[in-house]
Structure formats: C-alpha cells, structure tokens
Amino acid sequence: MRILVDTSIWSLALRRPSGVVNQGATLLKTIIEQGEDIYLLGIILQEVLQGIRNSNDFFTLKEYLKAFPLIDLTREDYTRAAELKNHLIRKGKQGSAIDVLIASAAISHRCHLFTADKHFTHIAEHSELKLFPLRET
Questions:
Q1: pTM for the structure as a whole
Q2: Mean pLDDT, contiguous 10-residue spans, the chain (137 residues)
Q3: Which end of the chain, N or C, is surrounded by fewer C-beta atoms within 10 Å?
Q4: CATH number reported for the structural domain that contains residue 47 in this entry
C-alpha cells in the first residue's frame, strides 16, 4: 500500500515528550517496520523540518527522512487541487490550499493519506481521498 504521511503524524511521532506513547506514532513505527511504501510531499518535508532549532537534530532528521521518497508534483496536480477546492466550496466545505493540495496529491498518486488532522475527513467525504485508518483494523 502507498501511504502519504501528513505532517500531523510526523509531529506526533517526532515531537512528543519522551516516554509519551500515542497511537499515531505507534502506528507510524509499525508501518515503517512492515515496509509499507511511505511517501512525503515537499511541503510536508518542510513543515516537519521547520522549527528544529538544534542544527544536529535538523541534520539527523533531514537524513532520516531521505529514506522516504518525495512525490513530485506537476502542473496537473495543482490544477486538480484547485478543482477539488472549488468542489468543496460548492459543497459548503472548507479546506486550506495546502490541505487540498495534499489531498489531491494523495488521490492522483494513489496513496492513502495517514493524518491526524480532522479537516481531511471532510475532504474525503467529498472526494476520492482515501484515509489510512489511525487505528489498525
């Protein structure tokens, strides 16, 4: 299965206090260990890395994340994101430009989106977006 991991899950896994266990972080560790195909987008990579103040931590995390391929976005991805945003507006739903771009990329590149962000639930209800369950089934 192809899985696009959103910033919200990476943050749960990487920025939690020591010793704190959460479901998103545990499940991310499991799917990495199981060898699932995990992907990033450039904006997710940027969001995960920004705010890392310690240069050694930044370098270590940057190197770790190289294991996960970036999905290269095309003009069509951006156009589809705009179409999705317009569709949501017609349905009376909101979605930030970044969230809609992430959702559109997941759809276009046949990935399940692994996220803890509830905004994507509304996007999935009105699109072909497939969410990776936060709980193992």
A1: 0.91
A2: 96 74 89 96 96 92 96 96 96 93 97 95 95 75
A3: C
A4: 3.40.50.1010
